[in-house]
Design brief:
Number of domains: 5
Mean pLDDT: 82
Largest sheet: 7 strands, mixed
Shape: elongated
Strand content: 15-25%
Helix content: 40-55%
Distance between the termini: 40 Å
Low-confidence stretches: none
Number of helices: 26
Strand order of the largest sheet: 14-26-25-24-15-22-23
Length: 735
């Protein structure tokens, strides 16, 4: 199975995206396809043994759209300035057209040479030419509408196209009558209606384009963080190159005040880096040899050389952009409901319009009135606002989350986060920073403490567990040399084993003693250390316990406030840890968490989550590493507290790049407000159609309420604009 994101041209409304999505999902070899109207792309999972990229693009073409190739980056419309000038020109022409056609009705001064009463032929020709210009302007709408009608998948363009052509052809017929001497037929012209419908549809799309670009700003700003140039070392000389010329393994130079060009590892020097755009940490962090750097970070005060590791699509920034784009291409359940309704809506409107036309003719109305009523229904019912209601809100919310360091892999998270009633936290590295320090040593051997820590630190240097850092940091701070380790083995949830100087060393928790049938005579010492909030490490040499070491962790900033806020939201919090009961309960009490599940293996964490779900709890699991992966995958929403460089390998649906649990509160708040905005959008979109379609049908003309195609197209724009402005309220959520 392979996944590809293709940029799509030609989509104008939700009916378009629905048509393409349904068509693609029917094709043999396509496992799943999701089309995003706002981002104008399609995410396609397909069997690469059956299909190739060019075959997928051919499917898109047959569906009536055009593939612009594989998605590479989020771009703003490069033709926006040109489009603006063109739109301004057509605005002037629209004003001129309305002045010529309706100026005399409101007693405005008229031009005699094209006056309807003085020179009706010139008046007719002038209206016809101006309307033709607008028909050319809207040719893309007409073509798309026709294409989708042929494919039996009518959309908004089909409604507009039928309406415009109906009124234009009827007006052209009356124009021929005028040329043949029937001057009275001039009062049956609806040229201006055809032209103004196109104008207002284009106005709506112009405004829509502006709003779509605004939804991409946060993501675009991330892309701009990465510099376009770099300095590399070639034969010990510095050379300025573009980012595209940097290759894996190149030695890149960074001087004070410059941005890091690509992701890499420092091989020379030391400096302070500002990584706030990824981690949210306002203070610069010290970086030295062997540590990772992220493209876009600001080098404050040091000269460093680093080896390029992750370039282009593999960089942290690219991974973030990719995650946000893929998330926007997964649909929340509420979005699928709106899409389904929209898919049935267009055919229903066409049927209503046709029936109304027939009824008008049967009731004795003249052909002109019947056609204009038919046109008005088609135009007023265009489902622009309905199509924008959900996807636009989702994209804005995802952009907002990205700007706050909350990366969402699936769009449905935004709908589901507000349903959460239980949050399960891993302890080490999640509720705590994972910055463990050696607090107390119970040495039962003849080995002195320094050599004991040297043994443990050498073994722990092979591990990625947060506890390992307490010992490796001690070795580095005291400049103690690491010993050679052979036959290293990491047993998840238990500990680590290795051979040092031909002696078997075991380091781990009490469970590892049971695994190797080692007698534990130091249970009381373990309890005393645990009561002080320590995580307990047993050290075994040649199957004998030689030491008991307590390491302490640091509780994350604001964790206590976060737990209080969650309690105010009536959300239950649970600590789930592999640590011993005494240590876990001590830290939980300090934080304010009342329920603790301790001494669990990684595989057992998933069972705890499943049990909660069976109790009809809607569960969020928050963890920090691979050990938590089963639980993260089992939870309704998996949240990972990760640094930027680990984004690509994370298995959760949400990644908190700021490493702050306050982001969970922000996610829940954004979720609540997003769903409220979507419901408001859908309400106004449906209300608009429920009110305007009966008016367009003439059911309220007894009360003097009647609209024409021009007003219908203008009302359609106002409806879409209402949805856009309502959605942009999401951006006002405080940072």
């Amino acid at each position: 199975m392979k996944k590809i994101i293709l940029s799509i041209d030609g989509m104008t409304c939700s009916a378009c995206s629905n048509v393409l999505e349904k068509y693609l999902n029917k094709q043999n070899g396509i496992i799943n396809a999701t089309v995003n109207l706002v981002m104008a792309n399609a995410t396609i999972e397909y069997d690469e043994k059956i299909l190739k990229k060019d075959m997928l693009e051919e499917f898109i073409k047959k569906a009536g759209f055009k593939s612009l190739g594989e998605f590479k980056e989020i771009k703003f419309d490069e033709k926006s300035k040109k489009n603006k000038i063109i739109f301004i020109c057509y605005t002037i022409l629209a004003i001129l057209l309305m002045y010529i056609s309706m100026g005399s009705m409101v007693n405005l001064p008229t031009i005699q040479s094209i006056d309807i009463n003085i020179n009706p032929i010139n008046y007719t020709i002038c209206l016809f030419i101006l309307t033709i210009i607008f028909i050319i302007y809207g040719l893309d709408i007409l073509k798309n509408g026709y294409r989708n009608l042929i494919h039996k998948t009518p959309n908004m363009d089909t409604l507009v196209g039928l309406g415009v052509l109906s009124s234009f052809l009827y007006s052209t017929y009356n124009m021929v009558l005028v040329f043949n001497g029937n001057i009275h037929a001039i009062h049956n012209f609806y040229f201006e209606a055809s032209a103004m419908v196109i104008y207002f549809v284009k106005l709506g799309r112009y405004l829509d384009g502006i709003s779509k670009d605004k939804t991409k700003e946060a993501i675009q700003n991330l892309v701009k963080i990465t510099p376009i140039k770099a300095t590399i070392k070639v034969n010990e000389k510095e050379k300025d190159v573009t980012i595209d010329e940097v290759h894996f393994g190149d030695i890149v130079v960074s001087k004070p005040g410059e941005r890091i060009s690509v992701d890499g590892e420092i091989i020379l020097g030391k400096t302070h880096l500002d990584e706030s755009f990824i981690t949210g940490e306002s203070k610069p962090v010290i970086k030295t040899i062997g540590e990772k750097v992220i493209a876009g970070s600001i080098n404050y005060d040091g000269y460093i050389e680093y080896k390029a590791e992750r370039i282009g699509k593999e960089s942290t920034i690219s991974e973030i952009v990719k995650l946000v784009v893929e998330a926007s291409n997964t649909k929340a359940p509420i979005a699928r409901i709106a899409d389904k309704v929209s898919g049935y809506f267009v055919p229903a409107v066409m049927i209503i319009a046709i029936i109304t036309f027939i009824v008008y003719v049967l009731l004795g109305y003249d052909l002109g009135t019947s056609i204009i009523t038919f046109v008005t229904i088609l135009v007023v019912a265009c489902p622009c606002s309905l199509g924008l209601a959900t996807p636009l809100a989702i994209i804005v919310a995802e952009g907002l989350c990205a700007s706050k360091g909350i990366l969402i892999k699936k769009g449905e998270v935004l709908e589901n986060a507000q349903k959460i009633d239980t949050i399960v936290f891993d302890k080490t590295g999640t509720l705590t920073y994972g910055f463990l320090k050696i607090s107390e040593i119970k040495n039962y051997s003849k080995i002195d403490n320094i050599k004991l820590i040297q043994l443990i630190g050498s073994l722990e240097s092979k591990s990625s567990h947060p506890i390992a850092k307490a010992f490796t940091d001690y070795l580095e701070e005291n400049e103690i040399e690491k010993l050679d380790v052979k036959e290293f083995e990491d047993i998840a949830g238990y500990g680590i084993i290795g051979n040092i100087n031909n002696q078997k060393i075991i380091v781990g928790n009490s469970k590892i003693l049971n695994m190797y049938n080692i007698d534990n005579m130091y249970v009381e010492d373990e309890k005393k250390l645990a009561q002080k909030g320590n995580t307990i490490i047993y050290v075994v040499q040649n199957e004998q316990i030689v030491a008991l070491i307590g390491v302490n962790d640091i509780i994350r900033t604001n964790v206590i406030d976060v737990v209080k806020k969650l309690s105010n939201y009536k959300i239950n919090t649970i600590m789930l840890t592999g640590d011993n009961k005494e240590t876990a309960e001590k830290i939980a009490k300090d934080i304010g968490i009342t329920k603790v599940v301790s001494n669990v293996l990684p595989s057992e964490k998933a069972k705890v989550i499943n049990q909660l779900k069976q109790e009809n709890k809607y569960v969020m699991m928050c963890g920090d590493g691979i050990n938590d992966s089963p639980a993260l995958a089992t939870a309704d929403i998996g949240v990972s507290v990760k640094s930027g460089t680990d984004i690509a390998i994370d298995s959760s649906e949400v990644i908190l790049t700021k490493n702050s649990l306050e982001s969970i509160i922000e996610l829940i708040n954004i979720s609540k407000k997003t769903i409220r905005i979507i419901k408001e959008n859908l309400f106004w979109a449906f209300l608009y159609n429920m009110l305007m379609i009966p008016i367009a049908m003439g059911l309220l003309q007894t009360f003097g309420i009647r609209i024409n195609p021009m007003f219908a197209s203008f009302a359609m724009v106002i409806s879409s604009l209402t949805v856009i402005l309502n959605t942009l309220r999401l951006k006002k959520i405080s940072k």
